[in-house]
Amino acid sequence: MSYISLYRKYRPQTFGEVVGQTHITQTLANAVKQNRFSHAYLFAGPRGTGKTTTARIFAKALNCAKGPTPTPCNECGICLQIIGGNSIDVLEIDAASNRGIDEIRDLREKIRFTPTEARYKMYIIDEVHMLTPEAFNALLKTLEEPPECVVFVLATTEPHKVLPTILSRCQRFDFRRIPISDAVGYLHQIAKAEGIVIDETVLPLIARQAQGSLRDAIGVLEQLSSFAGEKIGLDEVISLLGMVEIELLFEIVDIVSRRDTAGALFFVERLMGSARDIRQFTKELIDHLRNLFVIRSTDEPAGMIDATPDALARMEAQACSFQPSEIMRFMDILTETHGEMRWSPDAKLLLEMALVKMTKPEVDASLDGLLYRIDELERKIEGRGTRDESQKIKKLEAKEMGEVHEVEEVKEGEGAKKGKVEAVKGTAGGKRDEATPSQQPVIGKQATGQKIDIARVRRAWPVILNQVKEKKISTYALLLECQPSSVTEKTIVLEFSERASFHLQEMEKSRNLKVLLQSLKKVLGMDVDVECTLREDEGPKSRETSLREEKLTEEPVEPHIVKLVQDSFGAEIIEEVEFTED
Predict the structure, then answer these.
(1) Domain-ending residue, one of 302, 334, 364
(2) What is the C-alpha separation between 352 and 86, in angstroms, rounded?
(3) pLDDT tens digit string along 147-178?
């Protein structure tokens, strides 16, 4: 007897043997048992999930000599003919190669004849979405009112391509991707029956590689058996398929969480030294990060992640090292890198660049990288205040604009903390101002997460303008005539000079306001309202005084925040002052 492929040899022969589709097999079994089955069905779902297999079992259930029965015997003549594909009453038609109107007309002529041996004549049309519109129209009337002894089963991987008029005449069943745990169990049964010794850690890798297709998973097992013989280990899987074991994914994510750039580069070198495929590894890493994001974003992640209980527990522990926004940024970087790898001859370099951006955000010059660094700084500043509520300002003195502002910080029971202050000078002189601890502005997100302050809006204003400029240049030109002046709850007040009344009127029109609101939401991360007002021109003093009051009350800031202040207000750095412990 000639060799039979494993996926054919171990094809399920009863409804109970179908893996991962209980919601379908139970419905069909009950329909047969109650003699309430329809004349037309649509089986939709990914490849290798059991559509054709279930259709054959359904045909046996209707035509078995002991039936109709939900448990065909698989021993009578008609069952054996259907199993062997030799039944003249159960016809399987490949719509990809028989997609024209002539073939459907021929089917329509033959359908009127009664079954030769079986109880019901069954037409299984695979990949039905490949039929031409003319062929669909020719099938329509027959499908709606076929002879009593005829049942149609239409199978497709792309149900959205099937005409709505066809869909409305069928009972639709959606086949799901096979969960990893179910696929692992079925592969273990096949390996045991075939006498294949396989490492338990390999089966989840095979199931994950198949992406929910049980037929593909069985095919991979068969390929490995031919390659490695009767004993399959992790090395054979990696050598043949270039697959990535989950331990590597946990390792690289731990490296990223430590911001260990050197470790990430050494990891890529080690990855290249093995037989693993760089592009496949990147795809697996994206999937792993997706699982971490699901864990951080939902209360019940187990139903959305295909993983063993042990792996899921490790993912939950690892996800605690990141904020959801960080994970999303990593996924954006890797998704772009994965797409570029398709056309680049140097996938290693692209992966190294991606990991450097992930471990050293300061080297990422993109807008997303800038916003991430600002958000990271704000979290750190807010967190420091929360962890050390006893910290206070002992002395905060401001001199004439153009002179250095000296700041000393002390903690109760401790000396002054060593650090660096950058003094910023405005474009003109001003009066001496003082600020008390109660006037100290909060830099970063508000504690409630629902409010913003004017300082944050002004820091981000150049980025907001850049966003608007990319969307609509005319709106950008209008916004050049205004500045954020205050924030009330979630409303940002934009102040236009008296000579810019026309700009204010144009800005309040919906077409311009919509562009601004979209940009504000993208940069600030929340929905806000905008109010436009006119101010009386008070000379050059008001703008500089406002800058001075904010800068004198803020804590030392990072260089990129100072750059935003420069861009916003035309300021310049005049001196950097070190202050030391007493």
Answers:
(1) 364
(2) 56
(3) 888 999 999 999 999 888 899 889 999 999 99
543 burial level (CB within 10 Å; 0-12, 13-18, 19+): middle
Quote the CA–CA distance of 505 and 524 in Å, as a whole number.
Answer: 25
Q: Last residue of a domain, which of 364, 381, 410?
A: 364
| DSSP strands (E only) in 181-226 | 197-198
Pairing of strands 121-126, 150-156: parallel
Angle subtended at Cα 15 by Cα 12 and Cα 20, rounded to the nearest 5 degrees: 75
Q: Are strands 90-94 and 482-488 parallel, antiparallel or unpaired?
A: unpaired
Tokens in use for 309? Answer: 């209980």
Residue 225: domain span: 180-241
CA distance 12 to 85: 15
Question: Of the candidates 308, 277, 263, 313, which has an alpha carbon nearest to the alpha carbon of residue 292?
Answer: 313
Closest among 436, 463, 438 to 371, alpha carbons compared: 463
Same-domain check for residues 191 and 258: no
- CB within 8 A of 565, min separation 6: which ones? 424, 458, 459, 547, 551, 571
- On whether both 21 and 107 belong to a single domain, the answer is yes
What is the tens place of the pLDDT at every residue in 341-390? 888 888 889 999 999 988 887 766 666 666 666 666 666 666 543 333 33
Residues 252 and 225 both lie in one domain: no
Please tell me the total count of domains within the chain: 4
Backbone Cα Rg of the chain:
34
- Residues 17, 115 within the same domain: yes
Distance between CA atoms of residues 179 and 184, nearest Å: 9
Could you tell me which of 232, 225, 183 has the C-alpha nearest to residue 208?
Answer: 183
